[in-house]
C-alpha cells in the first residue's frame, strides 16, 4: 500500500495590486522584497489552507496596525485593502534621505511588513500537570558569614529522623544528603569561599581628544529613496466583529520588505529585450534557438 505524505500547510500572505499578485524577489537579498511605485495602493492576499480558524495580525514599518486581527476561516482566501481600525487603504509613499549611517539606522524599519498567524484557542480543555519527583537539594547564596544549627527534617525517603548538623561558611551552601549519616552531630563546611572570588575588575576607558569632539561628522552628498506604508484613499471594505479566543503565540510568521522601484536591480528576465536574427534581421521569440525565416542559429 502506497502512503502519500503531504507537507504541513501554513497560511500565506502575499502582496497584490488590483487583486493581482506582485512579483516577490528573494535571490541574493537579505529579506524577500516587493518593489512598488510612489503613491501606489495595494492589498494583502491572505489564504488559510489549514482546517483551523486562524487570526492574522499585521505589522507595518515595525509597528502593529491594530490590537485586533483579521479572522480567516479554513480554506478562505481574501484581499485586505485597508487598515483594521481606519477605513483607509494601504498606500506606499516614498521620499529622499541622505545616505549616512545615522540615516540608515533611522529608516531601517521603513517598508518592513510582518504578518503573524494565530490558531484559535480551544476552551474548556483540562490542564494536565505531571508531578516532578526529582530530588533537588536546596541552594543558598550569601555574601556574609552564615552560622547556626541545621535540622535535616523527617523525610524518610532521603533523611534519617533526628539527624542534625551544624554548618559555618561563606558564599554557596548546599544541604547534604544525610541518608547514610549516623545519629549525632556533624560539621559540614562548604568548599566555596566567597572571598576567594576576585571582584576587582579592570575597566579601560577610551577618552576622546578635543580634536575628536570638535570634528564634524562626514556627511555624504548622496541620497537614496526610501518608502513607508501610509494611509491612502477611502476604502469601502467593511468588517463584522466577532468574539473569539486565539493562542498567545503565533504558529506561523511571514516577513518581507517593501522598497521603491528605484532600488530594484533589474536582471535580464526583468527587461523586455527584443531579439533579432543576425543573418536576415527577422524578429525572434524569447525562447527561439533558431530563426524561423532562414534557420540561422540564434
Walk me through this protein's architecture.
The longest helix has 6 residues, at 101-106. The strands form 4 sheets. Strands 1, 2, 4, 8, 9 and 14 form a 6-stranded antiparallel sheet that branches. Strands 3, 5, 6, 7, 10 and 15 form a 6-stranded mixed sheet that branches. β1 (12-17) and β2 (20-21) form a beta hairpin. This protein has a domain at 12-123 and 222-263. With 298 residues, the chain is mainly β. The protein has helices at 101-106, 210-214, and strands at residues 12-17, 20-21, 33-36, 40-47, 54-60, 63-64, 70-72, 77-80, 88-98, 112-119, 139-151, 164-174, 187-188, 223-234, 252-260, 275-276, 283-284.
Q: TL;DR?
A:
The protein has 298 residues and is mostly beta strands. Helix content is 4%, strand content 36%.
Structural class: mainly beta
The percent range for strand residues is: 35-45%
What general form does the structure show? extended
Report how far the terminal alpha carbons are from each other.
50 Å
Alpha carbon gyration radius: 34 Å
Taking all residues together, what is the mean pLDDT?
74
Pick out the low-confidence regions: 138-220
- String of helices and strands: EEEEEEEEEHEEEEHEEEE
Specify the number of helices: 2
Largest beta sheet, briefly? 6 strands, antiparallel
Helix content: under 10%
- State the total count of DSSP E strands: 17
Amino acid at each position: 500500500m502506497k502512503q502519500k505524505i503531504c507537507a504541513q500547510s501554513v497560511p500565506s500572505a502575499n502582496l497584490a495590486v488590483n487583486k493581482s499578485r506582485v512579483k516577490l524577489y528573494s535571490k541574493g537579498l537579505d529579506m524577500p522584497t516587493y518593489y512598488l511605485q510612489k503613491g501606489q495602493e495595494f492589498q494583502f492576499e491572505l489564504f488559510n489552507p489549514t482546517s483551523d480558524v486562524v487570526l492574522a495580525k499585521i505589522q507595518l514599518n515595525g509597528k502593529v496596525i491594530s490590537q485586533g486581527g483579521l479572522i480567516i476561516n479554513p480554506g478562505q482566501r481574501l484581499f485586505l485593502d485597508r487598515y483594521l481600525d481606519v477605513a483607509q487603504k494601504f498606500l506606499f509613499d516614498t521620499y529622499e534621505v541622505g545616505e549616512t549611517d545615522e540615516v540608515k539606522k533611522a529608516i531601517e524599519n521603513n517598508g518592513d511588513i510582518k504578518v503573524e498567524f494565530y490558531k484559535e484557542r480551544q476552551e474548556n480543555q483540562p490542564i494536565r500537570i505531571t508531578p516532578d519527583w526529582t530530588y533537588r537539594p536546596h541552594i543558598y547564596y550569601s555574601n556574609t558569614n552564615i552560622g547556626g544549627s541545621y535540622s535535616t527534617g523527617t523525610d524518610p525517603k532521603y533523611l534519617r529522623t533526628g539527624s542534625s548538623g551544624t554548618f559555618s561558611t561563606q558564599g554557596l551552601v548546599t544541604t547534604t544528603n544525610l541518608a547514610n549519616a549516623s545519629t549525632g552531630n556533624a560539621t559540614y563546611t562548604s568548599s566555596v569561599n566567597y572571598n576567594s572570588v576576585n571582584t576587582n575588575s579592570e575597566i579601560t576607558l577610551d577618552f576622546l581628544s578635543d580634536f575628536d569632539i570638535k570634528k564634524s561628522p562626514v556627511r555624504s552628498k548622496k541620497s537614496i529613496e526610501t518608502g513607508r506604508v501610509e494611509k491612502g484613499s477611502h476604502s469601502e471594505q467593511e468588517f463584522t466583529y466577532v468574539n473569539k479566543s486565539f493562542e498567545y503565540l503565533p504558529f506561523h510568521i511571514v516577513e518581507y520588505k517593501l522598497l521603491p522601484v528605484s532600488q530594484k536591480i533589474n536582471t535580464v528576465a526583468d527587461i523586455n529585450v527584443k531579439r533579432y536574427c543576425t543573418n536576415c534581421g527577422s524578429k525572434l521569440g524569447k525562447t527561439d534557438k533558431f530563426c524561423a525565416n532562414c534557420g540561422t542559429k540564434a
